Amino acid sequence: MAALVALASTFSVFAQPSGKVARVAFVATTSPLSEITGPVPLNPAPRGLVHGLRELGWVEGRNLILERRSAEGNWDRLPDIVAELVHMHTDVIVVPGGAAARIMKDGHFTVPIVVAGVDDLLRSGLVKSLAHPGGNVTGVLSDVDMDSDAKRLQFLLELLPKKPSRIAFLGTKADWENDFGKNVQALAEKVGVRLVQVEGATTGFAGAFAVIRKQKVDALYVARGPSTYGFRHQIGEFALSSRLPSSCPGTTEFTEAGCLMSYGGSVFELFRRAASHVDRILKGEKPGDLPIERPLAFELTINLKTARALGITVPDSFRARADRVIE
Questions:
Q1: CATH number assigned to the domain comprising residue 68
Q2: Co-location of 196 and 314 in the same domain
Q3: What are the tens digits of pLDDT across the range 33-45?
């Protein structure tokens, strides 16, 4: 009986949802192709998408062709990448937050776009509302509200034994000027901490690291987005080697790379949920009719190994609040 149940379960997973072979694309912005390819990609974004699609019955080699592309830091390539995918008659294109506005700026792409991440789709004019997007863009946002980034700064301040006087804000100009960045600035001003803006680039952060060294800051706050995520290993290594306590975006990949702490929505879960939008579009629903969702849960991660290297004692109360502790 157990064997029959297992067989039935396997069949339900691999059953073709609509009897067609769908062509779906995942487009990365900064990650190398080596991180987004294969049945279990290293990058949690395509890994979550593959996992979610498989749960819904879409399996590569059976009823799904999953095209994978990356701009590898050159965001100006994004429209050309999408144009190529449209020419291939791709059914749905999945992109991380931060890419949708760049792709859609010319307004001539009508292929369904599913966004997972931090794009302010309302402000950029890509959707009419979260409940009824209209047009051809929908997806999953990475925030419940605009205060999550400021809350991450507050977590860092709670961890440090002494209030820092200067904290480097590492990100792009857009990260500094958007509502998330402004909320972080407002909190810093309120608690008497000076934020030093250090602008990185989509092609790398070597220049920004040099600026931070000269600024002699007490800690590092890393803005979230495809650019910082694509260079998370370099950022984590820099923070650790420079002995800078760091507050990093929500994926545990940052803390695994050496950051002291991270807080935010799970990238894997964002793209796993985005797979549901892809599934519904493949089955005939219009992206403009699919409500844009918000994350169900945030993750707080602390790297105790990094804390020990920096001479920081993590309070038991903070450890108890963490969703994950890296020993």
A1: 3.40.50.2300
A2: yes
A3: 999 999 999 888 9
